[in-house]
Amino acid sequence: MVPKKIFFTKGVGKHKHELHSFELALRSAGIEKCNIVNVSSIVPPGCKIISKERGISLLKPGQITYCVMSRSSTNETNRLIGASIGIATPKEENSYGYISEYHGYGNICKQMGDHTEDLAASMLATTLGLDFDPDKAWNERKQEYKMSGSFIQTQNITQTAHGNKDNPWTTVLAAAVFLE
Question: Which of 4, 121, 155, 165 is the most core-located residue (most Cβ within 10 A)?
Fold first, then answer.
């Protein structure tokens, strides 16, 4: 199977049991009806990014669904947790892209999202044998990276939440979901 489509989703769940908070995060993300299989980080050449709404409409209950997922849970009141997925794709459609995942504590959405985009762009650059410094390669006006003459587009999806005293377990997730 080589995926032809990909979409991004995120969710948060809170419950007195950790597993149930994860289930609620899956529901919030719209992928609870799937049998999730975690995969690594390559976006196939020509894989089209589609909207979350379109992607979810293509899912069937019980479907084996491949995704790159980042998730984090806490039972500490007010603890800030986050999960983020970043993607870097070359503008050339015949080249593959890269996905990174990151989860952690104490980072706001923008910091976490920027970090995962930098990770994805850096990992893609090293697999292509290119030198890459995210601080020097970023073009603010065009919102893209330039490395060795090639332009790289990046984006992220990030979910953060604070731990909750009323429902001791909080889970966040972000996912890049592959479809045929």
Answer: 121
Chain segment 94-148, per-residue pLDDT in tens = 889 999 999 999 888 899 999 999 899 888 877 777 666 665 555 443 444 555 5
Report the distance separating Cα 32 and Cα 24, nearest Å: 8
| 84, 116 contact by CB (below 8 A) | yes
Whole-angstrom distance, CA of residue 26 vs CA of residue 46: 27
Domain region containing 44: 5-179
Q: Which CATH number goes with the domain that contains 53?
A: 3.50.20.10
Q: Which two tokens stand for residue 177?
A: 């979901």
CA–CA gap between residue 53 and residue 107 (Å, rounded): 27
Number of domains in the chain: 1
